[in-house]
Write a structure and sequence with these properties.
alpha/beta; Rossmann fold; six-stranded mixed sheet; 6 helices; 12% strand; globular
């Protein structure tokens, strides 16, 4: 491990210890991403009292769910799983259709609220701090991300300990420590959400460009367009 990454790992571990001792009960909101697996490894390696939970939306890839089993096998830890309210899901599907999120941003956000936001509120109930794997270079909207920031809506503290990590550093540590990770990463998925809402990315895209890709279906930026299967393709030049 190089010196720079070693310092970042030490900073990560110190922050997690402080979160556990000074802001407990604390929890890692894990999407089972590569970043979250780095944090999971640090928490379980040092046997910290930070709970690790994930949101099973009911539409995740099988490879994503397999990470839960990999954590159990590697660390002997059972990730706590929160699921959406079945009645709310049934009402949405019955009223709009199972895949209605493709039809409008409003319906996509409504689906996300049912499957992700409401379960997250339940997961964070009673917590004094929560931890994420967000990084500044994942998207332009995260460029100002702080390592520690107030979650004013919930009245608790939010920690983003990998805020200044690069994607390369995340993968360097995963390889260094042989940390389990989602097999979809090997197929070009850099940010993974629900199966119908996620696609692989191509060179030059933001890490999170594969999320809710159909909302960019009219994009022609840099000669690329979104194909019917959700993948980016090079636009053909006129003859």
């Amino acid at each position: 491990m190089n010196e720079s990454l070693g310092r970042k790992v030490e900073d990560l571990e110190r922050l997690l210890v402080r979160a556990d001792l000074e802001h407990g009960p604390a929890a890692l909101a894990s999407s089972l991403s590569a970043e979250d697996m780095v944090i999971t490894d640090a928490i379980l390696r040092h046997k910290l009292g930070i709970e690790i939970f994930t949101l099973d939306t009911g539409r995740l890839h099988a490879d994503t769910l397999n990470v839960i089993s990999a954590i159990r096998e590697r660390y002997g830890y059972d990730v706590r799983v929160f699921r959406p309210d079945p009645a709310a899901v049934a009402e949405y599907v019955g009223r709009f259709g199972r895949d209605a999120f493709y039809e409008s941003v409003e319906l996509r956000k409504r689906c996300c609220h049912i499957r992700k936001v409401e379960p997250l509120e339940r997961a964070l109930a009673g917590k004094q701090a929560w931890i994420t794997g967000q990084r500044r270079d994942q998207a332009a909207t995260r460029a100002g991300l702080n390592v520690r920031e107030p979650d004013e809506a919930r009245g608790i503290v939010k920690f983003n300990p990998l805020a200044d990590w690069t994607e390369g550093e995340v993968w360097d540590l995963i390889r260094e420590r042989d940390i389990p990770y989602n097999a979809l990463h090997d197929q070009g998925y850099r940010s993974i959400g629900c199966a119908p809402c996620t696609r692989p990315t191509v060179a030059g895209e933001d890490v999170r460009a594969g999320r809710w890709w159909w909302e960019l279906r009219d994009s022609r930026e840099c000669g690329l367009h979104v194909a019917a299967d959700g993948r980016l393709a090079r636009s053909r030049e006129p003859a």
